[in-house]
Write a structure and sequence with these properties.
The complex is a heterodimer of chains A (about 375) and B (about 625). Chain A has about 375 residues and is α/β, with parallel strands linked by helices. Chain A has two domains: about 190 residues, Response regulator (Rossmann fold); about 150 residues, Response regulator (Rossmann fold, 3-Layer(aba) Sandwich), CATH 3.40.50.2300. Chain A is globular and about 65 Å long. The model of chain A has no long low-confidence stretch (mean pLDDT about 85). In chain B, strand 14 and strand 15 form a beta hairpin. Classes of the chains: A alpha/beta (about 375), B alpha+beta (about 625). Chains A and B meet through helix 1, helix 5, strand 12 and strand 15 of A and helix 21 and strand 18 of B. Strand 15 of chain A pairs parallel with strand 18 of chain B, so a sheet runs across the interface.
């Protein structure tokens, strides 16, 4: 019997060994890319967590199939001489692409400047619809505002069967305003009724929100950040309102960044995001999280999207062996299915076609309600 | 009550605190205290006029001390201190020092017998062989507790049986086998004494040899439980225990070279054990004398019904005890006879096989679970499966060959019947019932294994109705076989391979589970057949790859179903909810069945877009079918 066990063990070992990926031998050559990341105190988390994700992604895939290594040249966009540094690095390193961890507002401000370099720019976090344009230089790995609004509107109308919605936004943020506008239009098209559409940012924003009648409102679509949201949650509780809240994609990450001590107050609100905690993780996500957890990572979509951005870039580099710029650009715009960290995605017309999660926040975690494709 | 006028008091380091107390005793006994080391080294200097000695020492030193008392013709008393619980139990006394002093100084000693092994007194017990966890208490090993437990466990799983030859005073020669033989003297409250169903006495004029002969490690565990959980005086002897009581015993062992006593002292074998009658005068409690009445008879007691006889002892010799026990051919003669008959091919089997296959095939086409269950009840495959399992376990080549032939013919007949039927019938669809039989799940394998256990178990006990309907349903091999036949009839290799693989995996799962069950129930033979082991291994090897593949498929299918159930699609601004999803693998093709909920009707473009969206989620090509329901 012992012999049988030993043989069975050998057989199972062989199965495992056969399934192991072959190791790639380094060629000694390098491929440069530029990383644009906000690294000052205010946006530290956004840039820092994205960089962590990127480094973990590289740890999982050190070399391209031909053995070449992708080298990151990090430029802190919050530095005063950022423009000068970027120009110098591009001239010196001759990068093949730019990977951006900037928010929508920042990118829109810098768009003109970035276009000058004629390099493909992979955007991981900025969801504004206007980022991708006819110049075909910008590619969005994350979902855009249109998709997000579509998901939110359909979820409310066709999944929760709600008709009356209130919309709150922060006029100071281009992202928030554009998203709220988009949602408003789409929700109306689906036969929904808008009870209120107000700017809650600025000086009297909360007072405006407090003065509203919300008796018929079933759910509030909220494109503001977590600091604004917690104030509204407290007000709604005070009023005894039963209106639910559906937040936009940055809300959870913003909560972890700015309002972690108030996290329990967010329990029960819906948020749209690129991932959920309670999905069965595939092998690569398990490995990815293992690497990140060693470095004090707190799960947010920043690191996940950085991983997906790196996957897209390496896929393009591997598909175009001579690193032909036209070829790379074409692949980045329209790709085959790529294995992302929280689901497969592919690029169509410079935008990612990917799964969007509608989650509920519970104990600082995102619990999946539905996945919308 | 009269008390001794003069006495030695022998103490050790643990009992020196009571020296003062005994010296100031209220019975006017003049005490000469003496440390144990001095006592054993200077026997000559002991006062001649003192004829009583009181011991308050660790029990391990008793053999030497009692030998001195015997030589010097002294009566003996004991004062156990509270920590010496074993002594307190053996002397039927309490932990109260005053009471024990009173008893020890009484002038009413009585005579007890002592056992001599090769002319040396033994107080406790001597062991030949191995008795893990009983033989010597773990604390006695001069290593750390963990090392001791490890050492005992190692011995436990390498228990061996050896042959013992015992000759009694009356000249009766007994040959048996066991893992250990224990010579008992004055331990009526010891672990070994607990196993015996007779009252022992220190005045019975007999030496007792206890033979422990577990037929399996499992039985030894039962013995341990019995020793550690139950009290003395059982009505019956445990299954694996026998004993011999005689005035003298000569003992020889086939493997062991020595008998081992407390403090790791030992003596070379063979040994001769004798009882020295009235060897020692002892002061003890009234309770002790009640339990140790004079029971001297010339009659020898030999209780060896539970032990292997001479012929079996020769077979067992120097073998490791198996995890589960062996069964002799004689013990289960009737069952083996039935199984041999079951293994043979007969007309009834063929007719039932054809009928059940036809029934199953029709049920599969009609997509009727009830008809398929009917076919399972009629199917006669269970009997040769049980026979082959027993044959493999016992290395019965004929039973194995007959069973394989019977099962093989059964398979061929079933395939022919179902393929002809599939060819003739004007149907060509793959029904839901067929689909479930070409896509095994982990549950199917679990059912197969459990079926094997139930089949073997029900066959082993007469009380269970042999043709249990539940077992027949559980051992559901005919339906997948019928599906394989339908595959042949259609000329579809994928259908045939998928279903036949499920059938074969289930068949092997059932056989191996039945072999293990029979083994656990003690039907294994003493000599294991190498061919059987090789055959089981070949079977395991045969199913390991398909199992690995099907396991992978099962997990993938499960994950896909769960994942898709929470999926929604927005296609051309239309929201589509996945209510239910099932994926079936049919050869290279993956068939995805979806139940969808929608609010608007879907046109051709919507369906195309939906299809491509679903397809994007997977790495392989899918054949998608969907049913729509509208949400109002």
């Amino acid at each position: 019997m012992k012999k049988i066990y030993i043989l069975l063990f050998i057989i199972s070992f062989m199965f495992v060994a056969c399934n192991k990926d072959k190791e790639i031998k380094p060629s000694g050559k390098t491929v440069n890319i530029i990383i644009l990341a906000p690294l000052d105190n205010k946006n530290e988390r956004l840039g820092y967590q994205s960089l962590l994700g990127l480094k973990a992604a590289k740890e999982m895939k050190k070399y391209l199939k031909n053995g070449d290594e992708v080298v990151f040249n990090i430029v802190d966009i919050d530095k005063k001489d950022m423009k000068h540094t970027l120009k110098d690095t591009i001239l010196k390193k001759k990068p093949l692409a730019i990977l951006s961890f900037m928010s929508s507002d920042k990118i829109l401000n810098m768009k003109k400047e970035l276009k000058k370099y004629r390099l493909p720019i992979i955007v991981t976090l900025a969801t504004n619809n206007d980022i991708v344009d006819k110049d075909n230089l910008f590619m969005q790995v994350c979902i855009d505002n249109h998709k997000q609004s579509l998901v939110a509107a359909h979820y409310i109308r066709d999944e929760k069967f709600m008709k009356h919605v209130g919309i709150v936004y922060d006029k100071r943020s281009i992202y928030s305003t554009a998203l709220a506008d988009e949602f408003k239009e789409l929700f109306k098209k689906l036969g929904g009724e808008i009870d209120f559409f107000i700017d809650v940012g600025g000086k009297n924003g909360l007072q405006r929100f407090e003065s509203l009648k919300k008796t018929d409102t079933e759910i509030i679509f909220n494109s503001t950040d977590s600091t604004m949201t917690i104030k509204m949650i407290k007000l709604l509780k005070k009023e005894g309102s039963h209106a639910e809240i559906l937040g936009a994609d940055g809300l959870y990450s913003s909560m972890l960044e700015n309002n972690i001590n108030d996290a329990s107050s967010y329990d029960g609100i819906y948020v749209i995001d690129h991932f959920a905690h309670n999905i069965y993780p595939n092998k690569q996500r398990k490995r990815f999280e293992k690497i990140l957890n060693k470095k004090g990572f707190r799960e947010s979509s920043y690191a996940f999207l950085a991983y997906d951005g790196y996957q897209l870039l390496t896929y393009a580099f591997e598909t175009c062996p001579k690193y032909d710029k036209e070829c790379i650009n074409a692949i980045l715009r329209d790709s085959e299915t790529i294995k992302g960290i929280s689901g497969n995605f592919n690029m169509i017309d410079s935008k990612a076609r990917r799964e969007v999660y509608v989650n509920k926040i519970k104990n600082k975690r995102l619990e999946k309600e539905v996945v919308i494709y | 009550m009269k008390y001794i006028s003069k006495a030695h008091f022998v103490y050790d380091d643990d009992s020196k605190d009571i020296v003062d107390k005994i010296c100031k005793n209220k019975f006017s006994t003049e005490i000469t205290p003496i440390h144990i080391d001095e006592f054993t080294e200077n026997i000559i200097s002991l006062a001649d006029d003192i004829k009583h000695v009181v011991f308050s020492v660790d029990g391990e030193r008793f053999p030497d001390l009692l030998a001195i008392a015997y030589i010097c013709d002294m009566s003996v008393g004991f004062i156990p201190i509270p920590s010496q619980k074993e002594q307190i139990k053996n002397l039927y006394t309490t932990s109260n020092i005053d009471t024990n002093i009173e008893i020890a100084l009484r002038d009413d000693s009585k005579l007890i017998d002592m056992v001599k092994i090769n002319d040396k007194f033994v107080y406790n017990q001597g062991i030949i062989g191995t008795l893990p966890f009983i033989g010597r208490s773990i604390k006695k090993y001069k290593t750390s507790f963990i090392t001791s437990v490890f050492y005992a466990l190692k011995k436990f799983f390498s228990l061996k049986v050896q042959k013992f030859e015992i000759t009694t005073y009356n000249g009766q020669k007994i040959v048996t086998a066991g893992s250990a033989l224990v010579i008992l003297n004055h331990t009526t409250k010891g672990f070994i004494s607990k196993l015996l169903n007779v009252e022992q006495s220190m005045c019975d004029g007999k030496v007792t040899a206890v033979i422990i002969s577990p037929s399996s490690v499992f039985e030894y565990i039962q013995l341990l439980i019995s020793v550690f959980t139950f009290s003395n005086n059982k009505k019956t002897l445990p299954k694996s225990v026998g004993y011999i009581q005689s005035k003298s015993l000569k003992v020889e062992a086939s493997s062991s070279k020595r008998i081992v006593f407390e403090r790791a002292e030992s003596m070379l074998l063979p040994i001769e054990c004798k009882v020295e009658k009235d060897a020692l005068k002892l002061n003890a409690s009234d309770e002790f004398w009640k339990k140790n009445e004079d029971k001297r008879t010339d009659k020898e007691t030999i209780k060896i019904a539970n032990l292997p006889d001479k012929a079996e002892a020769n077979k067992y010799m120097s073998k490791h005890i198996p995890l589960f026990k062996y069964a002799s051919e004689e013990r289960f003669k009737d069952l083996f006879q039935i199984l041999r008959v079951d293994a043979k091919l007969n007309n009834t089997f063929l007719v039932l096989m054809v009928l059940s296959t036809i029934l199953a095939t029709l049920g599969l086409f009609a997509d009727s679970t009830a008809v398929i269950i009917g076919a399972m009840l009629v199917a006669p495959l269970m009997t040769p499966i049980v026979s082959i399992s027993m044959g493999l376990l016992r290395g019965d080549t004929k039973m194995i060959k007959d069973s394989i032939f019977k099962i093989g013919i059964g398979i061929v007949v079933a395939l022919i019947a179902s393929s002809i039927l599939a060819y003739l019938l004007p149907y060509s669809q793959i029904t839901q019932e067929m689909q479930t039989r070409i896509n095994p799940t982990l549950l199917d394998l679990g059912i197969a294994i459990l079926s094997g256990i139930v089949a073997a178990y029900s066959k082993s006990f007469k009380e269970i109705i042999q043709n249990l309907a539940g077992v027949a349903i559980a051992v559901a091999l005919v339906p997948p076989l019928a599906v394989a036949g339908i595959g042949l009839g259609y000329g579809e290799a994928g259908l045939f391979i998928g279903a036949f693989l499920l059938f074969f995996t289930n068949l092997v799962g059932i056989i191996i589970a039945a072999v293990v069950t029979f083994n656990m129930l003690g039907f294994s033979s003493v000599v294991k057949s190498k061919k059987s082991v090789a055959f089981i291994f070949a079977l395991l090897l045969g199913i390991s790859y398909p199992l690995y593949i099907s396991y992978d498929n099962m997990i993938e299918r499960y994950k896909i179903s769960i994942m898709l159930k929470q999926h929604r699609f927005i296609v051309n601004n239309k929201y589509i909810i996945v209510d239910n999803a099932n994926i079936f693998i049919h050869g290279d093709l993956k068939i995805l069945n979806l139940d969808l909920l929608v609010r608007e009707s879907l046109n051709r473009d919507d369906l195309e877009a939906l299809k491509s969206d679903i397809q994007r989620l997977f790495n392989t090509k899918l054949f998608i079918s969907a049913q729509m329901e509208y949400i109002l």
